[in-house]
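MODEL INPUT / OUTPUT PAIR
PAIR INDEX: 1
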Amino acid sequence: MALPPDACGLIVKYVSDSRPTLVSLCTVSKQFRAAAEKLLYNTMHLTTYDFTITICRLLSCTPRLACHVAALSVYNHGDGDNEASTSEEDGPQPPDWDTYWNALSAALKNTMRLRFLSFYFAGGGQTDKAWILDGCTFQLRTFHCDLAWDIHLQTFLGTQSRLSDLYLADFQSLAIAPPISTSAFLPKLNVLECTFSEAAAALVPDRPVCRLKTCFTHSRLEEKRTELQIIAASLRQSKRRLRALDIADSSYTPEFSLEMLAAITSDPALGSELRYLGALVLPVGGQQRLEFYGFLMRLPQLRCIEVDVSDWDPPPTHTPALRALTHELRLYCPSVTSVIYVYDFERHFVRIEGHLATYDEDALADGLWHEI
């Protein structure tokens, strides 16, 4: 006698943390198999060469399973991968990357309900493989893309009318259809992370982008000023007010940080709803630091700020110093509830709990710009 569907679902949910148990449930009955397969194939992490090919072949020839995949992460090490495929007759064999990419392409065409897709390439990898997205019909919500930008990637992104969260490792504007300058290209984009500020300048206007993480591509002061003006102009054209802004810089200086703060706080479209801001140099000198705090007073919604203190000597990286600096900053910007201090690329996170500043050495602060 079949169990009620609700009871079957509750049983499967109860053991959802145990993949071996879910696999065992697939052998109990068709009813349990259907419920267990939804959880088993909902989220897939393809890491090794052999495992990726095995799973991709399964998904490409079994649409019933492929339709359960909602989140897929692909980790590729490219030609530098020392992993070898195995053969019972001939022993270890070098990876056949054509087979690997063709299998992945076939699997992606079957995952029609895919919503979260990530490509991670360690050490560069084979990034020129965006053709595997040709013919895909799924509508993504989140896309982490280490693939090189080319005609295939631009064409694919042109079909993503529901994509809201995008990471790009590469960017170039190609004069092909669909043009990226139109608002019909990624119309729902809210969160953009890109290593080239040119991507922000092209993809922010006329879209509801409210969170941006990028970096300056120039090191000369005059070129960075021009770049900042372009980024600010693009953000003003967004359909939503800015909530998070994180711009990395190869050469942090207090003077340019003050210029950046001045540009942000002078425009309500940029500063009125800003909740996260980084990375800025916290000046050592008293007068410059007061000017820095003066700009922060114009950001009424600021919740978290990331400041670089690499120029400080001695470094303020011990708990009493971090707490003292946090309380000093909150005298001028009391809305701040967390501060990230960066010293020689090492991050120190301080949060406000009640009226106390607490140093949390185990906190994962990298994603705060995305959440706060």
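PAIR INDEX: 2
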Amino acid sequence: MVVSSSNGRGRSSSSSSSIERKRKMVLGIGYLVQGLRGLPWMGVNFYLKDGLRVEPSTLQLLQNSANLPMLAKPFYGLLSDSFYFFGQHRIPYIALGAFLQALSWLAIAFLSSSSISLFTITLYLLLSNLGASLAEVANDAIVAETGKQPASSPSKNKQSSSSGELQSFVWMASSIGGVLGNLVGGVAIEKFSPQAMFCLFGILLIIQFFITISVHESSLNLPKNPSNVSIKNQLSELVIALKKPEISGSIAWFAASYAIIPALTGTMFYYQTQHLKIESSVLGISKVIGQAAMLVWGVMYKYDQRLKSISPRKIISGIQVSLAICMISDVLFVKGVYREMGVPDSMYVVVLSGITEVLGFFKMLPFSVVIGQLCPEGCEGSVMAFLTSAIAMALMASGYLGVALASYVGSDFSGLGVGLLIQAACTILPLYWSSCIPGGDDLKKKKT
């Protein structure tokens, strides 16, 4: 009897290990490719600037308009929660998303020079982001569902932190993809055409497609909702979830913390490449530094127990303050203060610009853990999709505000310093209502 029990536990442990391995394979490749999207987008930026010679405001307008498909993420989440294909409702959407992205990037790569136009590229970028949105919604739903299941270890501490560990894993996968994408992109943009970068990314997406369809969803041991649940029922459950103040208030604050800040990414790109004559390889290294910082942050959040003991609200607020400080540092950079101190422009761009660009996204990790814990069972895909849609809408609003601010900055960048000060002031404002995010004690009450 003792031997039989031991064998049973062995088989159970082996099964759990196999399930976890397959989950990490699907999620790992999904978030890795998501991080690698910086590779083709770096090619898009340089192609629009050097090939089509668009203005900074036009570049920023296209960057934000291409995100329109992401606004429909709640609808994709409802589809994923409600409609099953061959008994699966996550894997098919990930595979379809990878296929649509591969189709769009390979189409751009093989377009003849005579047929390339701003309108054509915009259409294909919209199709690519549609595919990315579908894949991201399904991946995020898997993370939310899996994170709420008890860990395989009986340890109470491991059970309570399983959600954070999985969030950290996918965060690190995305960050590694970002490091590789920007590192390769920074070197490739000087040696190869943007079309070659589009083709390379398209091939990677094809590989993701075949890996994804090789895994059946039943092997991931995901909670299965009734397949006859209609979109109407799922929508009503989503509405009920959003009526909870701790969920709606948190999402509203988080989205506002992005929307209220006018983005000047396109303007800074032109300032660095045209005004300062910073080489593309330096920009690539800068983005690598930023992604490496995100990777380090993911590792720290997963393994640093002291960090886990801090309230997510305090962590998010601290990140917001740090972002404002970095923006003020950018003002000193534009005014030439660091140059007078002997710091080369390229060194500042490599070290600080890359970190400033991604610092605002650091708060996504602790916030996603919070929402994962608050999310009601059965509509994880819908709630997470609504969150990502709200973030996409906020980033678009931020981008359009940035287009307006860029017109004040001017083509000679004479108003860039003042524009960055406006950015910093807008970054501080959300701190005044950060109480909308549940504190550590509030989350503990929800668990019990």
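PAIR 2 NOTE: The chain has a mean pLDDT of 81.
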